[in-house]
Design a protein that fits this description.
mainly alpha, Butyryl-CoA Dehydrogenase, subunit A, domain 3, about 0% strand, about 270 residues
Length: about 270
């Protein structure tokens, strides 16, 4: 039953062309996607917005480590088995997750302190740098999380007794999506105000991001059960970052934001039928 559910999930969410595709074809596609992520957001000679390299050149520790990890991954990618590739991907995701959960906001403060402000344009540039960094990190995390889930499915299908679906932190069982009523009810709660999810526009936009949609599902379920969401601060930070990017786009012509979704899915489509 788990295998059929897993197959249906990946066919719908990640557009795998054929569930009968060989392990080699699937791994080749995953490797291609990881390399593309590196070239788009890390490779200093190819990245459209090399903000990570700029920070690494300024001796920012997290950016230096992330670049080093991704360079090593790409350099050795054709030598790695599915299991080893999965571990490398999870390692990079953990590094990003730890940075995002850092209560001191070390990287953001590094950017803040590194840009001298003498006039309003300097202040705008500083905020733009923060937004670019958060956007790049969000995209890398999203791509790596998706490829990690695909790798997990390959490993689980190969050796289900060793790698059952849900046994790794990156994965987890496929859950039933929240109903529209439950989401709308949550939006009226004080908790929704705390996390910046109390208006329709914000909820619609953030639910258009698969990785964040999963976190919000967990958050709403936890609140509904009277628990304090563990990922609450991370969700709030992600929501703020995404909405700031949209707000910046409305007031600027920043090329870095051109690839952001111009219009998210309609509210009903995101929430699904009830």
């Amino acid at each position: 039953m788990k295998i059929f559910r897993l197959v249906k999930y990946f066919d719908h969410k990640y557009s795998l062309k054929s569930l009968a595709a060989s392990k080699e074809e699937t791994l080749d596609q995953v490797k291609t996607n990881l390399i593309n992520a590196y070239n788009l957001y890390v490779n200093s000679s190819k990245a459209k917005e090399p903000v990570l390299q700029m920070l690494a050149n300024a001796k920012e520790p997290f950016s230096k480590k992330l670049i080093s990890s991704m360079e090593e991954l790409v350099a050795n990618i054709n030598k790695l088995s599915a299991q080893l590739l999965f571990k490398r991907v999870v390692g990079i995701l953990d590094s990003i997750r730890n940075m995002k959960n850092d209560p001191e906001k070390t990287v953001r403060n590094f950017i803040h302190d590194s840009v001298m402000v003498n006039k309003e344009s300097d202040r705008n540039y500083r905020e733009h740098m923060k937004s670019k960094f958060e956007m790049v990190i969000s995209r890398i995390f999203s791509i790596f999380e998706k490829q990690g889930r695909i790798l997990q499915s390959v490993i689980a299908l190969e050796t289900p007794e060793v790698h059952p679906m849900g046994s790794e932190e990156i994965g987890g069982p496929v859950r039933k999506e929240l109903s529209k009523d439950k989401i709308l009810m949550f939006m009226k709660s004080p908790a929704a105000q705390d996390y910046g999810l109390d208006d329709l526009e914000t909820m619609t936009r953030v639910l258009s991001y698969p990785d964040l949609k999963s976190k919000i599902t967990t958050l709403i379920n936890a609140v509904d059960r009277g628990h304090v969401p563990i990922d609450g601060p991370e969700v709030k930070s992600d929501v703020e970052a995404i909405m700031k990017i949209y707000q910046d786009r409305q007031h600027t012509n920043i090329p870095a934001l051109e690839e952001m979704p111009e219009k998210p899915e309609e509210f009903g489509s995101i929430l699904g039928d009830t």
